[in-house]
Amino acid sequence: MAKVLVVTSGKGGVGKTTTTAAMGAALAQAGEKVVVVDFDVGLRNLDLVMGAERRVVFDLINVVHGVAKLPQALIRDKRLENLWLLPASQTKDKDALTEDGVGRVIHELRKTFDWVICDSPAGIERGAMLAMRYADEAVIVTNPEVSSVRDSDRIIGMLDSKTVRAENGERVEKHILITRYDAGRAARGEMLSIEDVLEILATPLLGIVPESQDVLRASNVGCPVTLNSPASAPARAYHDAMRRLLGEAVEMQIPSERKGLMNLLLGRRAA
Amino acid sequence: MVMSASAETVRPVIRLRGRSYVAFVFSPVVPIADWLGELDAMLAGSPGFFVGKPIVLDLSAVDLSPLAITHLIKSIESRNIRVLGLEGVEQGRLSLGMPPLLSGGRQCAVQEIEPEKPSLQQPTSLLLDQPVRSGQSIVFPDGDVTVLGAVSSGAEIVAGGSIHVYGALRGRAMAGINGNSAARIYCQKIEAELVAIDGYYQTAEQIDAGLRGKAAQARLEGHSMKIVALS
Hints:
The complex is a heterodimer. Chain A is α/β, with parallel strands linked by helices. Chain A has 14 helices and eight strands. Chain B contains two helices and 14 strands. In chain B, the strands form three sheets. A six-stranded mixed sheet of chain B has the order 4-6-8-10-13-14, with no helix packed on it. A five-stranded mixed sheet of chain B has the order 5-7-9-11-12, with no helix packed on it. At the A-B interface, helix 7 of A face loops of B.
């Protein structure tokens, strides 16, 4: 039974694309057949993080408009044979997405894949709405700071009202993934605590991914962090989150403070 | 209607009141035997339908002798249907013992006389069993709103009556919007951006910092809002 998972957040720069790539690769490593779909039309990034930017010929918009067939647009990962990418168009904008067209593409992907992971653009406009429209489950990527948490709260409200499932009286299963967590800053009260975030969002926690240079490094070489440095803290956190998504009971690890100082020096990265 | 003059001594006052009733009207057509057959078929479908519902017999479509009229009335009454009165026939054709001649009847829509259903009342309270998320606006001018969960920062509740939040109130709560100054706001944890009752409001800055995070209620006292801890 195929599952459509949307990775969303409302706010930009919190780690949606990193999460999509890392979770997609982790699921594929676990033997699931996975496609990651970039909904960020006009600002596509997922192809870069997946290291497939030179192989894009057709894209989601071409398929939505019937210009290309789905198999022509799907790009198979060179490292994992179970992992595929459906890239976004860089030249169009979000208005090129139609609800029916996206519905057809998702329907077709469901037939072939175990997991269809939709990488949502930031915001609450058309692109984000269509990315979540057909979702069965949602990973809400949240940084432990007030603006990200409030945006996540808003997105959760939309998952509960604007999705096909919500309109049919069903529920989208929602999970919070806290990313860019810095134990040192959290300890000094410079970040919201995990408890605060969960209390505000009132949604189950899927995992806590620490802020790490490994994430930046992986993006720069175009490889999901779970493949590029599988022993790193963020990779292990994503791996645990993936197992929880598959229904396993995995003990939650709150990243320790040890690496805090180094993480402070980290730069920002794209969502 | 009959007026009676009474004895000279006491002279009780008799008040006459008018009242109208709705009755079904039977309009038989010739041949009468076939028409009675139709009536039987209808009664077979719902035998008790005319119990307690006398009918009026409209004879304008037929030309019957007094004897035939008597026979028709007997046929109908043998089916347990009482004839209340006659219509559409000259007085001269009627004989003693027949139901009286009626006039002045008017058409009306027949109401289904069924056991009365409890009328659907407009709900006077709204229960939300999920948190109210940022960006959501709940507007319920007809009464109270109860939320089982938090009201997030950036969310708002607008109620004609009181607002009850079984969780943290972090957004805006506006109670008594239709001029109901008796409305109140209750929450388990007050971290509100704004609370208002009947147009009087306080923003987060005005709310006593000592109350923050505590269970509280807001109510109006005259023209000022009081927010106090719920103990």
